[in-house]
Design goal:
The structure is a single chain. By secondary structure, the protein is of the alpha+beta class. The chain has 2 domains: 3-80, Outer Surface Protein A, domain 3, CATH 3.90.930.12; 83-164, Outer Surface Protein A, domain 3. The protein has helices spanning 3-6, 59-80, 138-150; strands spanning 9-10, 16-20, 23-28, 31-36, 41-46, 49-54, 83-90, 95-99, 102-106, 113-115, 121-126, 130-135, 161-164.
Length: 179
């Protein structure tokens, strides 16, 4: 039995939830998010909460129960508060800047890297080395942050590269040298 799927999703103040068949539409101060729930899961709005129940006890229904509840919950949280990922750049000469809505990264390559964020995701640069990715869709925010990080992942010898804020990089010793 899915323990996550059993929990109802509480609708906070300022968020309006509408059901259209198996589509859950959440509208809030940050924007609008839609989640299409599979046919194996039934969605109901009861007393300021969203309740998801399985239609049967198949293996796929059980697997989708907790997933569907989490996706609906993320949509509700996203339109209310939004999601945010912070990245740090470390390394001599590595820096980021904004070019309109796109982010321009100088990461030691022979060319700058320009990345355009998808719709609904905003990227901000503070102090050339701090990047903030924010938006209402948790998956889109995480994907954009992972794309930026993948352009120069932190290396284990000197720790240079792009890392998530607070991420710990295990360091290697390097060459021992002759005696």
């Amino acid at each position: 039995m899915s323990r996550i799927g059993k929990n109802p999703v509480i609708i906070p103040d300022g968020v309006e939830v509408k059901l259209e068949g198996n589509k859950v539409i959440a509208k809030g101060p940050k924007g609008t998010e839609e989640v299409v729930v599979r046919d194996e899961i039934e969605v109901q709005v009861v007393d300021n909460t969203i309740v998801l129940t399985r239609k049967n006890d198949d293996r796929t229904s059980r697997a989708l129960h907790g997933l569907s509840r989490t996706l609906v919950n993320n949509a509700v949280i996203g339109v209310k508060d939004g999601f945010e990922k912070k990245l740090e750049i470390q390394g001599v000469g590595y820096r980021a800047s904004m070019q309109g809505t796109a982010i321009n990264l100088a990461l030691g390559y022979s060319h700058p890297i320009v990345l355009e964020p998808p719709a609904g995701v905003t990227v901000n640069v503070e102090a050339n080395t701090k990047i903030t990715v924010s938006g209402t869709n948790k998956q889109a925010v995480g994907d954009m942050a992972a794309l930026i990080r993948s352009k120069r992942a932190p290396e284990v010898y000197k720790g240079k590269g792009i890392r998530y804020e607070g991420e710990f990089i295990r360091r290697k010793a390097g060459k021992a040298g002759k005696k």
